[in-house]
Amino acid sequence: MNFDGFARFYDGDYRDYSDDIALVLKTARAAGRSVLELGCGTGRVLLPLAGDGCDVIGLDTSAALLAIARSKLAHHGYANLGYANQAAADGSVKVRLVQGDMTGFELAEREIDFAFVVSNTLMHVTTQAGQLKALQCAQRHLRVGGLLLIDLFNPDLAYLEAIAGIQELADWWEDEESGATVLKWSTRTVDAARQMQETVFVYEEVFADGRNAQTRLSFPLRFWWPDEGVMLLEQAGFAVDEVCGDFDGGPYQSDSERLIFIARKR
Q1: What is the pLDDT of residue 181?
Q2: How does residue 43 score in pLDDT terms, banded at 50, 70 and 90?
Q3: 133, 103 in Cβ contact below 8 A?
Q4: The domain containing residue 135 runs over which residues?
Q5: Domain containing 143 — which CATH number?
Q6: What's the total number of domains in the chain?
Q7: Is a pLDDT exceeding 80 seen at residue 89?
Q8: Do 86 and 172 reside in the same domain of the chain?
């Protein structure tokens, strides 16, 4: 998966999306103030956490995404230094960015209060064994009683099969840096037997001088069923506190849009 290639479209793609932030902040406040985000991207959720007074470690595989996050942190005055269990010299909030794979990272911290992975990011790990490794890595870095939040889409197979192979204009925006109009085309396919959805995004840039450029990116996702999620979390050393169907904490139902787990390290 070419996340470096996605980096320059990331903030445009997520420019109007903040649905998950209130729940993440609420859970962080309940758990404590040291936080680990798996798949932090360019800092969309990381920055509000820092603004709320949390010390945050952001982990991502993409150097290009982390470079944008680092620039944002500098712009907002957050230091990218130290560890979450050490005080910054001036007592200010700090953020540390780490390039690494969520299925095999090792940090010095082992008493983090809260870890989370949102926006379907865990699904980019496309095997069950890999997803379990990611949960186990998170578990090792949390304190006993620390919380883990996982946010996934709730798979609607009838809908996914109905739209399979259809190209649609998913979004468009004006890119302030390049001046181009960006058209985001998407085509999805689904393999229910393997619990896989693959989305091909084509980002078409139309420039004022008539030039046209296209970037094609493929994102396979392995989705969960609710019982499988509970099983894997328990196998990784968690007790599941809640399974929610939306960001307001409503109970999960078969027609819920989201599949959100809040679990506690045993």
Answers
A1: 98
A2: very high
A3: yes
A4: 3-154+224-265
A5: 3.40.50.150
A6: 2
A7: no
A8: no
Rounded Cα–Cα distance for residues 213 and 205 (Å): 5
- The encoded tokens of residue 189 equal 């396919």
Per-residue pLDDT tens digits for 141-182: 999 999 999 999 999 999 999 999 999 999 999 999 999 999
Residues, the chain, total?
266
Write the CB contacts of 5 (distance below 8 Å, at least 6 apart in sequence): 64, 215, 217
Taking the complete model, does pTM exceed 0.85, yes or no?
yes
When the pLDDT of each residue in the chain is averaged and rounded to a whole number, the result is 94
Question: Are 87 and 144 in the same domain?
Answer: yes
- CATH code at 213? 2.20.25
- How many Cβ atoms are within 10 Å of 241's Cβ, its own excluded? 11
What is d(CA 34, CA 115) in angstroms, rounded to the nearest whole number? 9
Same domain, 55 and 138: yes
Instruction: Provide, rounded to the nearest whole percent, the portion of the chain with pLDDT above 90.
Output: 90
Do 258 and 244 touch, CB atoms closer than 8 A?
yes
Residues 54, 33 contacting (CB under 8 angstroms): yes
